[in-house]
Specification:
Layout lengths: L21 E2 L10 E2 L5 H26 L11 E5 L4 E4 L5 E3 L3 E7 L2 E7 L3 H14 L5 H6 L12 E2 L7 H17 L8 H8 L7 E3 L16 E8 L4 E8 L3 E8 L7 E7 L17 H8 L6 H39 L12 H21 L1
Antiparallel strand pairs: 1-2, 3-4, 3-8, 4-5, 6-7, 9-12, 10-11, 10-13, 11-12
Helix pairs in contact: 1-4, 4-5, 7-8
Length: 374
């Protein structure tokens, strides 16, 4: 069967009606580059709903902290919990809010006393209007004008675990390397070790976490990145792949040890916060000893693994702090404009510039104090 027109996973013939645009790196973590005539629609859906979905499950917290810009849609809010057991939602912009809105109505001195707590203004508006339907005496305009936005610093840290790998995520990452190889003109059949694994649940995984040394020569220091790289060295009969997500999870894939195709050296890398492509240099010219450690899944030490994760998380944390500062600076500007009755697109009168500056500074002061506490 001609690989150019057959599905790499099920070998069903690919025609116009069942062709798919497979994301080389999952769309959920910012992947944009796609390949056609690689897998059929059915296999795209099945692997996306299982293998690729696991990638989002494992990296969602890091993605939301760092920021991930999807080609379509926005990431869903994810549930987080503090050490003390309080539940919140982590939003795509990196901020947090309450996990559930609350509505409480109780008798008061002047009638029914209604208390509403909502995660955002649109939700609060909707709840007030619903309350007015149940209680005709509720003055919607008065209620909304009395509404206030409060921000309460967390009293205990947020907890989450970062566990990478496993069967589903592993298959997704191996598929990613095969997809990039296919995009470079290497047939799926040439990725024999990888394809045996993807098609057979009992085959030993042809990959391992690799933290013996840094394979990225020009690693970015101001933001995380996602990347996949494939190198074909016919003189060594090697076709190797490398996948790294959010500057933390690093694996090497042995696609084939019988490769006899053309020399290949291709990389797809980008900043997940904005999708901007990156020109990274990936060194997959591995020694025999390194390859043997990959085969036995021993290409890592506790020290190198911890150091790599500390470095990667440090970058993501700084990026999260930077997003917080940018977000609150914008909020401070809007607060000052609203307080002074100036349109956001308007011009600040010279004689009121000091008043504007004081409002911005006062607003930012408390936010910076919260930032220092975090």
């Amino acid at each position: 069967m001609d690989n150019a027109s057959s599905c790499a996973l099920c070998e069903k013939r690919i025609e116009y009606a069942n062709d798919s645009r497979e994301h080389i790196i999952p769309h959920s973590i910012g992947g944009r580059r796609k390949i056609r005539s690689f897998i059929c629609i059915d296999c795209n859906s099945r692997s996306g709903d299982s293998w690729d979905a696991e990638i989002w499950q494992q990296f969602s917290h890091l993605a939301m902290m760092h920021g991930v810009d999807r080609e379509r849609g926005t990431p869903p809010n994810i549930k987080i919990q503090t050490i003390d057991g309080e539940n919140y939602l982590l939003l795509p912009d990196g901020s947090m809010t309450i996990s559930n809105a609350t509505y409480r109505a109780e008798p008061g001195e002047k009638g029914i006393k209604i208390n509403i707590t909502a995660r955002d203004k649109p939700t609060a508006h909707k709840m007030v209007k619903q309350a007015a339907k149940k209680n005709p005496k509720v003055n919607v305009d008065s209620f909304l004008s009395a509404m206030t936005v409060t921000e309460t610093p967390l009293e205990s840290p947020v907890t989450f675990s970062a566990q990478f790998g496993g069967e589903l995520a592993g298959r997704s990452m191996v598929k990613t390397t095969v997809a990039l190889a296919a995009a470079a003109g290497v047939s799926a059949q040439s990725c024999d070790a990888a394809m045996q694994y993807l098609k057979n649940d009992t085959v030993t995984p042809p990959y391992a976490f690799f933290y013996l040394r840094d394979l990225i020569a020009n690693r970015p220091s101001t933001h995380a990145f996602n990347c996949v790289s494939v190198v074909g060295i016919p003189s060594k009969r090697q076709l190797l792949g490398y996948v790294e997500y959010f500057s933390m999870s690093r694996i090497v894939v042995i696609l084939s040890e019988q490769y006899d195709g053309p020399t290949v050296n291709t990389t797809y890398a980008f900043n997940p916060a904005n999708g901007t492509g990156l020109d990274l240099s990936v060194d997959l010219n591995l020694s025999d000893d390194e390859l043997e450690l990959i085969r036995i899944n021993q290409a890592v030490t506790d020290e190198t693994y911890t150091a790599a994760l500390d470095e990667g998380f440090g970058i993501i944390y700084k990026r999260n702090q930077s997003r917080y500062l940018e977000r609150e600076t914008s909020n401070a500007f809007e607060h000052a404009c609203e307080s002074m009755g100036i349109p956001k697109e308007g011009i600040i009168p010279t004689e009121r510039a000091q008043e504007f500056s004081i409002l911005v500074a006062d607003y930012l002061g408390s936010k910076l104090a919260n930032m220092i506490r975090r």
